Amino acid sequence: MTQSYPGQFRLARVQLINWGTFHGYYSIPVSREGFLITGGSGSGKSTLLDAISAVLVPHGSLNFNAASQQESGRSNGRSLVSYIRGAWRTLEDPQTGDITSSNLRDGATYSIVALTYDNGNSTVHTLVAIFRLDGGESSNADIKKLFGIIPGDVDINELTPLLTRSLDTRKIKARFAGTTATFTQTYSTFADRFRRRLGINNVEAQMLLHRTQSAKSLGSLDQLFRDFMLDKPTTFDRANEAVEQFDDLRQAYLKVEDVNAQIEALAPLPAHNDRRKEALAAREKADAMLTALPTVCRRVRADALDEEIRRHTANLSEAEARLAELSEQLEHRQSEERRAADVVNERTSNAVEILQLRIEREQQQITHRQNVFARIAEAATGWELNFGQSAEGFAALQASAQVRLDDFETDKAKLNDESRQLSVESEQATQNLSTIEADLASLSGRRSNINRELLELRQHLCHDTNFTESELPFAGELMDVSPDHNDWEPVIQKLLHNFAGTLLVPSAAREKVNAWVNSHNVKARLEYRAVPETTTSAVRSRDPRLLIHKLEFQEHPMSGWIQNFISRRFNYVCVADLKELEALSPETRGVTQEGLERHPRDKDGSTRFIKDDRTSRQGTRFYRVGSTNQAKIELLQQERAAAKSQCDATRRRLEETERKLDALRTERERAQVILATSFQDIDATPAQRRKAELEEELQQLNSSPETAEILAAHERAKAALEAAHTEHSEAFKEAAQLEGKLTDLRTQRADIDPSSLGGLEPEIEDAVHQALTKTTRRLTLSNIGDRRDAVQEMLQKKAKEADTTATRAAGSISSLLSNYLQKWPSEGADLKAEPDYAGEGIRKLEYLRADRLGEFRAQFLDLLNGTTVDNLSHLATLLRRAKSEIETRMEYINKSLSRSPFNPRRTLRIDVKDARGSQVIEFQRDLDAATSGAFEEATADAHEAGVARYHALDKILTRLGSSAPEDGRWRNVVLDTRRHVSFIGRELNSDGGTVNTYQDSAALSGGQAQKLVFFCLAAALRYRLADIDAELPTYGTVILDEAFDRADPEFTRTAMDVFTSFGFHMVLATPFKLIRTLSPYVDGTIVVNYEETVIDGKPSARSGFALIDAAGTSTTDDKEDQHADAQ
Question: Which CDD domains does the record associate with it (predicted)?
């Protein structure tokens, strides 16, 4: 067959190794006249096309099986890794429930795709893409890649021995040494090379070829022509030049602002310096008194110890004399008792003593049993049992004890449950009372309504950053609900609750506050705003119903900003009822007195309503707005009284339950005692009988008058000795105590070093002594410690307050100078960020106020008329002319479209329509306003007008040069002239009249949409791939996936005629149903097949194909190369 279209590169062969389910080596010849890929659903048609895309498309833009995704609207899960691995199905792991892929190639493996292009004049290039994954690798980042261009038609099966262990780039390059083959691991280099060799003009044409593969994904003419036909406009370059050249003017303006900023930055310095000096003097006096305090206290203590030592010495002398006297008396009594005992023993031969001992033992037995009986009787108290000392009564008592013991556990469990419940209630009541008291204590020491934890957080922040609390206010502290609108206070408090707790930070303090907050765990939700230092109050709306008219604002530098903020963010109209609420315009925000909020209507037509009646947001205690907290204090006082009553009541109930538990335990112990006792343990009758008998015998022995007298004398001697022992023991203890106390006093006195009692200045000593005696008439050993601690605490507090004031003033000075030097580091030669340099800073302030501001202003105005305005003027011209230039370029497309009928006796034409949005129109209006007219001669008097012109330019150029994402989006909108127009297709009859108009494919049927897209695609491809005067494009292969699947045969033939008339080589993937229609346009067809089978006992899958040439001969190629399973 004669070669068609000589000189045009057309795809001649596709080779695959290990691509998806094409496992092994496959070679697919592609006929030059046209080629058709067909097969059943899921057979692998798109797999072949994705292989071609893996070579021809930048991998960052690669979109596998794009036609299917356009149809389904979701990703199909295909990736370069899945194709290399040969993923063919997904299964659920029964153990883990995870979804995993089944792969044909799990170990180390590789894939090769080669595309051979032939221009019909003996020039042939083979494009090769090699991909390798090692074992265990499964991400795109793991893929090793090599791309090459080899002269001639090369069989890539020769490369497989070089890939079994690794991707050996050196050996592959050596294999083609001596040829013009090139290899690279960088796709962009590879693409630049093959575009030059194949005649693809640019990357836009390359991408258009890829998008053509899934033509259905082009949803509108706008998308096609904006993204794939028109080049990026020069407006971006012109804007960049204007941004760069604006810098000189900006610097001149900033010089003027810089001098003013320096003056403003140093202005507070004199006041900070005066405050620091006063605080340092107060701190010095407090330090001197703290230093003298220990010495003064030691003097007072030494004097008190001396007095106590003298008193205790005298008392000890008296006690020792008394003890000596009692010792002599004790010896005398001991002698008397011994003599009386000897007389008794002589007269009775010890019989009396023996009887007395036996009687004593019996009495002990009687006493013991009577005591046991008494314990039993006490244990049975309240049991209403009169058991006496009979065996029968005692048995009844034990039976009753057993019953009580059996009931113990049940009764105890019931009381324990009650006790636990009351404990929880008591703890909650106590915690509630503590919280109220803490809040009340906090409120009593301040005027703010803000939560205690936020105030403590601010206090900590201010202490560490040397700012005062008034410098860092909460928003709620700077406003009040007007007394005339108290009925609206509950609603206003709810609406402003979150904003009221916002900490307001001056812009100058922003960096220090950010650093402190970032480095601390604030243990709460802290919201703060960096507020401009100078903000004028907003011009309030005249509608008296607006929320802002129900507020009063405190005098403060940030009050203007707060009023602005509330006017913008809380612009509620306060209405009386629902009828008035509904009468508001849809764009107006409103609220009723019952708290129902209505917000402006959204873009989707819905209207949002809110009503927040949560308990936690009810009542005065919830309030945050207000410069005073008296109402909240009164409420908390009432709540404290109620909470205290609840605490007391709960505690009394808990104590009563505990008392019942104690009584129950006591009763159990008494029952246990009764059950552990036998009747013999309490029966004293036998011992009483024996004692009576012994006493009668002793009575008979003592019936002699002489014996009775001797015994009586002995008893008197024993009593006198016992009394002497007791008196001597007490006297001894008293003397020992006095001696110990005296020793301790002398030790304490000896510990006071005499040298530590002097060296004080009389004035300081007198001040300390007055502080010690301020609340007591006399200093003693017992109160000197407390007074010392109190005075020390007082002095430390004064020192701390003075130190805090001095530190804050010093910090303010350092911070001010530090901020100054950070912004103006060149001033650091004569100035440091230290308090001692305050004088130098003040002198610098005076110098700056006398600086040559007029000269700086004149320099700024001289630069105002420069190239920046010229560049912006040029940019404005480009924007105005963009539509006409695009219309001129579209004429080439229209000439291409006019060469073939769109419908019988009708052609298609593309017109350009203005599609500028409000942002573009506003930008062009601002651009014209900033550049129209020349600025008058710069003079000092013209400074205000010059600044206004500068800000107009700065507003435009700052946003054009911004790197913020939202500004980047805006920049693209206003500068991308491709999006300032839209494209409309007009179907013309032979007379040039419009028959149909197509703005996009959304309103068309599937076939109509494909028809419109393919005609436009043909024109776009012709425009991108061929020179203006060239008969044919140098590169001719166009691939279409799912081609014409919804078009009728007539349209299919028409579209194919369009493509072929432009000289394109069509490679089509399409269902079986279109084979008859497309067969005249192709010279070869493959039928792709897919089979799931079992190989080596494992489930597997394989793809293959059958080639049908122009003569109708069928050849099957489904073999696998021996190197395909290199793992």
Answer: ABC_ATPase
| pLDDT of amino acid 812 | 86
CA distance 240 to 1000: 34
Dihedral angle at the C-alpha atoms of 210, 211, 214, 217, nearest 10 degrees?
160
Token pair in block for residue 1021: 């491809």
φ/ψ of residue 35, rounded to 5: -140, 140
- Least confidently predicted of 29-38, 80-89, 535-544, 871-880: 535-544
- Cα–Cα dist 956/872, whole Å: 10
Q: Where are the alpha helices (DSSP H) in 135-186?
A: 169-175
pLDDT at 1119: 47
Q: Taking a C-beta distance cutoff of 8 angstroms, is the pair 172, 183 a contact?
A: yes
pLDDT of 460 strictly over 60: yes
Exposed, middle or buried, 215 (CB in 10 Å: 0-12/13-18/19+)? buried
Helix residue spans in 751-851 (DSSP H): 762-772, 784-823, 838-849
Beta-carbon-side half-sphere exposure of residue 669 (alpha carbons within 13 Å): 8
757-790 tens-digit pLDDT: 777 888 888 888 888 888 887 888 888 888 888 8
Tell me the per-residue pLDDT of 878-916, one tens digit each, with 9 for 90 and over.
999 999 999 988 887 888 788 777 888 888 899 999 999
Angle at 433 between CA 430 and CA 438, to 5 degrees: 125
Q: Where are the domains positioned within the chain? A: 10-219+1001-1117, 235-259+857-998, 447-628
Give the span between the Cα atoms of 77 and 68, in whole angstroms. Answer: 11
What is the residue whose two structure tokens read 């490679």?
1067
Percent of the chain topping pLDDT 90: 29
Q: What is the 3-state secondary structure (H, E, C) of 582-622?
A: HHCCCCCEEEECCCCEECCCCCCCCCCEECCCCHHHCCHHH
Tokens at residue 434, please?
């503590």
pTM greater than 0.70: no
Three-class HEC string of 885-937: HHHHHHHHHHHHHCCCCCECCEEEEEEEEECCCHHHHHHHHHHHHHHCCCCCC
Single out the residue of 1100, 983, 1121, 1103 nearest to residue 222, CA to CA: 983
The encoded tokens of residue 523 equal 């243990």
Specify the fold of 10-219+1001-1117: Rossmann fold (3.40.50)
- Average pLDDT of the residues in 790-810: 83
Is beta strand 994-998 parallel, antiparallel or unpaired with respect to 981-988? antiparallel
Residue 224 one-letter amino acid: L
H helices of 380-508, in order, are 391-406, 408-444, 452-465, 489-495, 497-500
Q: What is the DSSP letter of 10?
A: E
Contact partners, residue 611, CB within 8 Å, separation at least 6: 594, 595, 596, 597
Q: Alpha-carbon distance 205 to 195, whole Å?
A: 9
For the CA atoms of 80, 84, 88, 93, the dihedral, rounded to the nearest 10 degrees, stands at -90
Task: Give 69's pLDDT tier (boundaries 50, 70, 90).
Answer: low
For residue 1122, pLDDT beyond 50: no
Q: State pLDDT tens for residues 269-302.
A: 999 998 988 888 888 888 888 888 888 888 888 8
202/811: higher pLDDT: 202
Per-residue pLDDT of 706-734, as tens digits, reads 677 777 887 888 888 888 888 888 988 98
Calpha distance 145→191 (Å, rounded): 14
Backbone angles phi, psi at 122, to 5 degrees: 75, 15
